[in-house]
Structure formats: structure tokens, C-alpha cells
């Protein structure tokens, strides 16, 4: 935890400076450099698991799906609970739709029960196209708002030594994040096995949450430091990277592709897609993720994990739990989000 906190602090400092020096917005840095860097544990775990074949496919897929659910519900919820997060218009127009689109493509590719090598190449090509486009857009926008960013993040570095120092901060921060997350994941898995938890529960929760700890630390520190673009961009960018790059490369290197179990296809992947969709009304309601909405997202993660545990243990209360979710929690959420969007439309019409 100490390594994660320190690494996140160093990474955010370096990334903020590089944003101005490179002439791109902090949001773009959060969506690319920070997001892809903090997703490196997911990449390492999933690729190694996929390359080993066999049961490794379940770990590779479960890690990606579980991490994406964890990123939105837990990390975004935690960051908003620390401080309300302002949502950039670019996120609503481009990045959130890309995340939703990538989730839909993943679901379609998995319908036959396997994400094959060709599917993996298609997904990985998507992350290359997305990254190039985002950087291009970011440089074009930053030319219009460069003075504003200079006031917030300082003057761009004008000598090679300062640029090298900023890059060193980024790499050092990433190294600390990866090392810290690896230690925490190993410790958590050993404790889980000691307690007798199943491999499915471990891959969807502990491994997924553990490899997402760099995102937790980075977004939480960014929120505390007021780097809200990096905090939100890191989460959305990580989800896009997880589907397109992590799953794409894992399926490409796997001897027989990534197998998709009926349970994952019928429940976990649809939950990931629903979580991606929920970002639109939450982000659109005033272009602000409030503390209340952050608490709601966090509560949903607790409900999701509770369902996994009850289902895996075949607990007697599973039926009652499902009834409460279907007939109370989901309708209340839909009504709440609908009302928030309606209020936003009404406020705009009055303005």
C-alpha cells in the first residue's frame, strides 16, 4: 500500500508536467499515458495467464471483466466521494461511447464462447487507432487553451533535463505501482486460498481488484491533488485499454484463444456492459459526479461482490437477494438517473 500511494503521487506529478510540455491536455494524458501505465498489471497477469492456456483463459477474461467493473463502481465511486468530479465534454462525446462500443464488440465476439486470435488482432488494432486519434484531438484542443493549462500546471519544461526528469517520474511511479500491486495481489490470493475461496471468486474479485490498485491509488491521489481530469480519464482510459489491448493481446498470444464460460457470458460481461452504460446518465447529470453518485457506485460494487459470494457458496438467501435487486434496487436506480437527466434538461431549457 505504501508503494502504491508513493508511486501514484510520483506518477501524477510527472504526468501533469508532461501534459503541458507535450502540448496536450491533462485529460488526454490521463486517458493514455496514465491509464495505459496503471493497466500494466492487468496486461501482465492476463497475457501470462492466456499464454499458459487451459484454465488460464478464465483468469485472463475474469481479470479484464472484473477490473472494468471495479474501475467504474469502486474507483470512480471512491474518487467522487473524496471530491466531486467535473466531467469533460470530450468524455461524453468520445471516450465513454468508445468504452461502451468496445464493451459491445467484446460481447459480440464472445457469443460463440471464445475470443479467438483474429478477434484479438481486431481488438488490439482498435486501441492503436483510438490512441492516435485521442492524442491528435488533444493537441488540437490544447492549442486553443494552452494559457489556461499553463496557469494550472506551470510553464512547459524548456530544457531536456526537466523533460527527462518528468519522464523519470512517470516511469518510477509506474514501477512502484506495478511492484506494489504484485505484492498485494500475491498476499491477497494466499489469504483467499487459506480461507477456502474458489478460483472464480478470486479471479473476478481479488485478482481484478488487486491489478486495479494502481488505478485506485492514482485516481484517489489525483482527486486529492485537484487533478480531476487525470482522475476520471485514468478510469475510462483503463477500461478501454483493458478490453482492446489487454484482452486483444491475450487472445492473440493464447494457443487456442480465450475461452468464455456460459456464466461469464450470461452474467459478468452483461454487468460490465451495464456499468459502462450507467456512466452516460451519471456523467451527463450536470457534468459532475457528485459525492452521492459516488456513494451509489460504491454501493453497487458491494452488491455485485455480495452476489458473487452468495452465488458461489449457493447460500440460502440468494433468492431473496435476487428479488430485492430486481424489484427494488434496479427500478430505484433507473428512476433516480432518469430524474437527474430530466433535471439537467430542464435547467438547460431555463437557461
Written description of the protein model:
With 351 residues, the protein is an all-alpha fold. It has one domain (2-315): A middle domain of Talin 1 (Up-down Bundle). It contains 13 helices and four strands. It has helices spanning 2-21, 26-38, 40-52, 56-82, 89-110, 117-153, 160-195, 199-211, 213-224, 228-253, 262-284, 291-312, 318-350, and strands spanning 85-86, 114-115, 258-259, 288-289. It has a two-stranded antiparallel ribbon. Helix 2 (26-38) crosses helix 6 (117-153) and helix 5 runs parallel beside helix 10. The longest helix is centred in the middle third of the chain and has 37 residues, at 117-153. 48% of the residues are buried.
Q: What is the CATH third-level topology name?
A: A middle domain of Talin 1
- The ordered string of helix (H) and strand (E) elements is HHHHEHEHHHHHEHEHH
CATH class: Mainly Alpha
Distance between the ends: 47 Å
For the biggest β-sheet, the strand order reads: 1-4
Write the CATH homologous superfamily.
NCX, central ion-binding region
Low-confidence stretches: none
Beta strand count:
4
Strand content: under 5%
Helical stretch tally: 13
The class by helix and strand makeup works out as: mainly alpha
Our Rg estimate from Cα atoms comes to 20 Å
- The helicity comes to over 70%
For the biggest sheet, the summary is: 2 strands, antiparallel
Q: Please tell me what the overall shape is.
A: globular
Q: Based on the structure given, which CATH architecture is correct?
A: Up-down Bundle
Give the rounded overall mean pLDDT: 80
> How many domains make up the 3D coordinates?
1
Amino acid at each position: 500500500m505504501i508503494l502504491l500511494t508513493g508511486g501514484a503521487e510520483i506518477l501524477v506529478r510527472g504526468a501533469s508536467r508532461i501534459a503541458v510540455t507535450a502540448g496536450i491536455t491533462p485529460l488526454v494524458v490521463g486517458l493514455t499515458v496514465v491509464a495505459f501505465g496503471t493497466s500494466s498489471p492487468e496486461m501482465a497477469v492476463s497475457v501470462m495467464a492466456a499464454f499458459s492456456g487451459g484454465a488460464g483463459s478464465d483468469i485472463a477474461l475474469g481479470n479484464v471483466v472484473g477490473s472494468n467493473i471495479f474501475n467504474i463502481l469502486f474507483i470512480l465511486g471512491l474518487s467522487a466521494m473524496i471530491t466531486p468530479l467535473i466531467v469533460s465534454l470530450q468524455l461524453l462525446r468520445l471516450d465513454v461511447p468508445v468504452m461502451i462500443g468496445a464493451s459491445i464488440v467484446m460481447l459480440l465476439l464472445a457469443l460463440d464462447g471464445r475470443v479467438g486470435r483474429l478477434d484479438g488482432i481486431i481488438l488490439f488494432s482498435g486501441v492503436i487507432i483510438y490512441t492516435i486519434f485521442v492524442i491528435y484531438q488533444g493537441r488540437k484542443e490544447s492549442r486553443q487553451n494552452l494559457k489556461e493549462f499553463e496557469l494550472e500546471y506551470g510553464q512547459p519544461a524548456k530544457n531536456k533535463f526537466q523533460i527527462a526528469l518528468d519522464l523519470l517520474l512517470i516511469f518510477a511511479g509506474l514501477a512502484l505501482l506495478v511492484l506494489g500491486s504484485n505484492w498485494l495481489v500475491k498476499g491477497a490470493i494466499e489469504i483467499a486460498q487459506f480461507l477456502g475461496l474458489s478460483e472464480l471468486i478470486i479471479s473476478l474479485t481479488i485478482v481484478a481488484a488487486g491489478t486495479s490498485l494502481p488505478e485506485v491509488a492514482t485516481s484517489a491521489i489525483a482527486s486529492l491533488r485537484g487533478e480531476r481530469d487525470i482522475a476520471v480519464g485514468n478510469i475510462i482510459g483503463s477500461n478501454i485499454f483493458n478490453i482492446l489491448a489487454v484482452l486483444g493481446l491475450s487472445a492473440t498470444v493464447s494457443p487456442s484463444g480465450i475461452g468464455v464460460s456460459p456464466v461469464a457470458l450470461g452474467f459478468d460481461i452483461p454487468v460490465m456492459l451495464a456499468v459502462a452504460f450507467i456512466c452516460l446518465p451519471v456523467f451527463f447529470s450536470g457534468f459532475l459526479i457528485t459525492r452521492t453518485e459516488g456513494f451509489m457506485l460504491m454501493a453497487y460494487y458491494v452488491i455485485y461482490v455480495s452476489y458473487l459470494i452468495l452465488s458461489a457458496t449457493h447460500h440460502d438467501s440468494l433468492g431473496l437477494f435476487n428479488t430485492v435487486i430486481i424489484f427494488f434496487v434496479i427500478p430505484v436506480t433507473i428512476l433516480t438517473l432518469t430524474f437527474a437527466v430530466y433535471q439537467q434538461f430542464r435547467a438547460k431549457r431555463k437557461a
